[in-house]
Amino acid sequence: MAAQSVTAQIEGSPYGLNRLPHLGSSLLQVLIPNEVQSMWKEEAWQTDAGRSARTLVKYPDLRIVLVSMKAGARFKQHKTSARFAILMLAGHVRLHLPNATVEVPRGELLALDRDVPHDVEAIRQSTFLLILARPDRGTEKCHE
Question: Structural domain tally of the chain?
Fold first, then answer.
């Protein structure tokens, strides 16, 4: 029997998401290989753009997106107000920054501060987790 992703409520989700409310559930467990296989069947993956993304977790202060890119595919230069990290699950990408070019092969983690212009180029077919942190959008203050 194949395992499936788990979404459960623990004392309810306080986020009131209207679209895909399960992404803000109190407990999420995701089988990444199943999600990748499902993404590769979608139209976005079959197009010339050669990339596909699926949001796995969506809280006000945290997003986790699974991204797959075919070799040669590119996300043009952009920036985000969130700090983010890329965890390479498979393949190899290259980030072009204003003053540097950074290689991110399988197994590596790269973190980048907010508002840094960058583009992403897939050197080989690649799959990674994009983790976006927006602590200023959280519903609770951090206590140290």
Answer: 1
